[in-house]
Amino acid sequence: MDKLIITGNKNLKGCINIHGSKNSALPIIVSSLLSNENLVLSNVPNVDDINNMITLLRGYRVKINKNNKSIIINSKNVKNISADYDIVRKMRASILILGPLLSRFGYSKISLPGGCAIGTRPIDIHLKGLSKLGVKFEIENGFVIAKTANNLSGNKIKLPFPSVGATENILMASVLAKGETVIQNAAKEPEISDLGNCLISMGSKIEGLGTNTIHIQGVTQLNKASHKVIPDRIVAGTFIILAVMLNNKLEIKNVITEHLESLTQVLKKMGANLTIFKRSILVSPSKKLKSHNVVTSPYPGFPTDLQAQLMSLMCIVNGTSQIKETVFENRFMHVPELNRLGANITLNKDKAFIEGNQTFKGAQVMASDLRASVSLVLAALCAEGDTIVNRVYHLDRGYEKIEVYLRELGAKIKREKF
Same structural domain for residues 11 and 34? Predict the structure, then answer.
């Protein structure tokens, strides 16, 4: 198991190119199960979640050739087996194979998925949505067993909550279903549009991406295609927040700036000095930063995946800030660890109250999930003295060798095993 040792208060400078989106690449890789033809993907991030998904699909006899940031996937000889629990338990995104396997075989058996311990994130929305396409489910000995007597049939499906994963699962299952499927109250995240655009390039008929109503007209087969994964807006947001915290000049490149509007609007209200270009954001030193109140919500609202990072910033600005978490009920596990570094944060149910004007000081801390991990890294980079961040395998799920990126910008950070 690895740990990061970070010496704080180092000036960072230069530019950083943001890698491809993990949350886009995962369902897009899974979508290859729907076709017998090659799917060629570029700008795929080299992170553990992606590598675990590749391992999972190879267990189904999918051929995957990986080269730098590109992969070639062929599912012609896929074999419908029970998904490997040792892989599935590591990431909740593994549930996304359910829809494509049902579409292709009419049967699937997959272990209930794992992932970050940030809430229940039930899969019942997935199952109820897929059942509208003609699927029957059983939960038995920790497995989801799904089957359909005939081919999947299109239907109108209204989601009780705009779940990203459920929208993706139903979308993938619907492209080969008979007739038309309409997903109402669909999630509008850019990653869903990216998946949909990849499916369209494969021959799917989809309209309404980026809105809350998606129309899918089923087709009989999908073709070979190539697709470039969009940049990771959460990784980009993380480095933007870091530059603001350190009050350094840093340019974040290879971003789609409109995907970051909810963050940049908040940061500007807090006093951050941002110059926004079409595909990059320049962070320059600010004169004074102030507190702000934020409520997390589905896209285009403020992303829950940037909540922990923003909280680290709020600890050092003037005034008292508040964050209300509405997406996941257990996403404040970083708070005790930030307090160990010198923060003054109190919790009341779904709200965090952050006293500003604090000074972070180095200490030993423990990572609990992916975004909590990086919030501790941000605080450590601004802290006096050395900080040791333990259990950084969480970080590796979504950030490519973050210590290498940071050292190139001037940070003093190293990885050690313990």
Answer: no
